[in-house]
Design brief:
single chain; 261 residues; alpha/beta; Rossmann fold; Helicase, Ruva Protein, domain 3; 2 domains; seven-stranded mixed beta sheet; two-stranded antiparallel sheet; 11 helices; elongated
């Protein structure tokens, strides 16, 4: 019997009702599917029943990878590696639909990596991803809320995001101490063109470094007190970081790039 490894943040989804709900989120038949963190293959078996054109799985745990190869021989391709080390465009030829019960300890790192490396033509059609509920709350948070922050701004830059449903701890083995949420994400047709995503990372990091304080100090740090940007974007320096809209942060990143170019 395979035991979950705490060091890898493994919590295997075992609830058949939830598994069925997940695979019915989008069309699988004759599509190329990428599954991240298949674990013991519970969702994998449901995906295979839907007759995908091709199924590629990425599993970091070598024992689980071996188990998947044995149990689903000839029905999938197993890549025994860390998803953070992979360039998805190198391992996938077709656009894929991605399913992932992401390890809680690296879920935000995975999502951020994907977003920041996205070009105008995404390597995926849809992302159906399971997150810790608190992380999902931050991803979909709106301005003027406590959960709104860097993750909200970066996630919503290039992606449309929708919460599908929440999942109780009892649906997993071992049972986590937190609830989970399934999110549906796909590429926006139009988004702000920022030359270097690292500039958006920098802007949000500096602004949210002291999220309870007014934005005057971080603004002056980045723009040397240039009032032209303030007037152009109609920014009030008495506001706090969570009060600025998504678009304002994207525009700030563009203005910052103009300043340093």
């Amino acid at each position: 019997m395979i035991k979950a490894k705490k060091s890898l943040g493994q919590n295997f989804l075992i609830d058949r009702n939830i598994l069925e709900k997940i695979i019915n989120v989008t069309k699988i038949e004759n599509k190329t599917i990428l599954e991240i963190g298949p674990g013991t293959g519970n969702l994998t078996s449901f995906i295979i029943k839907k007759k995908p054109k091709k199924l590629i799985t990425v599993e970091k745990d070598s024992d689980l990878a071996k188990n998947l190869n044995q149990n689903f021989k000839g029905k999938l391709t197993v890549i025994n590696d860390d998803i953070l080390n992979l360039d998805e465009t190198k391992i996938i030829k077709d656009k894929v639909t991605v399913f992932g019960n992401l390890p809680y300890n690296i879920s935000t790192e995975i999502l951020t990596k994907w977003i920041l490396n996205l070009n105008d033509n995404a390597w995926f059609n849809d992302l159906i991803l399971m997150f810790q509920k608190e992380v999902a709350d931050r991803i979909i948070a709106k301005p003027d809320t406590l959960d709104y922050g860097r993750l909200s701004i970066i996630s919503n830059w290039k992606l449309n995001i929708k919460r599908l449903f929440d999942v109780k701890p009892e649906s997993f083995s071992p049972k986590p101490k937190v609830h989970s949420s399934l999110l549906f994400l796909n590429m926006k047709k139009n988004f702000f063109q920022i030359k270097d995503p690292k500039n958006l990372e920098k802007i949000t990091r500096i602004f949210f470094n002291q999220r309870r304080k007014m934005i005057k100090k971080p603004y002056n740090q980045l723009f040397n007190g240039d009032k032209r940007v303030l007037n152009k974007l109609k920014i009030d320096l008495n506001l706090r970081p969570q009060n600025l809209s998504l678009d304002t942060y994207y525009k700030l990143a563009c203005e910052y790039e103009n300043l340093i170019s």
